[in-house]
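User: Good morning. I'm curious how adenosine-5'-diphosphate would be positioned relative to this chain. Could you predict the structure with it bound?
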Amino acid sequence: MITVTNLHHSFFVGKRSNRQEVPVLQDVNLTVDKGEIVAVIGRSGSGKSTLLNLLSGYIKPTQGEVFIDGTNVTNFSEAEWADFRLDHLGFIFQSFQLIPSMTAFENVELPLMMKGLGEKERKQKVMEMFEKVDLHGLEGNYPSELSGGQQQRVSIARALIVNPPIIFADEPTGSLDTETETELLGFIKYLNEVENITFVIITHDEEVASIANRTIRLENGSIIEKDGALV
Ligand SMILES: Nc1ncnc2c1ncn2[C@@H]1O[C@H](COP(=O)(O)OP(=O)(O)O)[C@@H](O)[C@H]1O
Ligand SMILES: [Mg+2]
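Assistant: Good morning! Here's the predicted structure, ligand included:
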């Protein structure tokens, strides 16, 4: 589902006269199979978010190639990435990243608007999705009128609405209490087992790593461990 070969990434900081290279990822090789949950762990600053941003086209690698769902996406333009993400990738973040001025309904509807679906079809899909994430009746609430767990479910609804084969999550449980976290992990397991969605989840959290089929550890921008397979 995802193949990464010889991936290197550097950021360049400072003014042109004093531009400095900051190497962040070195020679990352990685395969994620369809239907896997892969946890990416590692200290703060080890390059986890950079890796996810490279896999989602938000930044371009300095070197190396990325294949997703059979497509070489390495040299995609921004427009190609935008289309590709809409069809293939869902995102879940620690801070939910909902748009505060839009209702829960409108947040979930947004990807369908971007795909150009008509109003009737959008409404039907969004209402079904609110049932699925167990938020029926809260469609008209703004994010500020929802609990953290509910906001996370809205963000999952937004990720799922276009049926992506892959979901990327960056510290998805970082803002949740233990009970809500257990619920979220149960839902991720369900989506993985029943709907065969592939997950790549960045986490600090042992609980999250415990639902993964595989754990990858990043240290100073290199993969130092590719297993630790947990059931
Ligand atoms: N846009 C950027 N410009 C310069 N350096 C960056 C940028 N983004 C991240 N970094 C640096 O890259 C390293 C890895 O960051 P990041 O991928 O966010 O790590 P993690 O998610 O594991 O905490 C850090 O040293 C960070 O300071
Ligand atoms: Mg990070």
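The chain has a mean pLDDT of 93. Strands lie at 2-13, 20-32, 37-41, 63-68, 71-72, 89-93, 166-170, 198-202, 214-219, 222-225.
Let me know if you'd like a different ligand tried.
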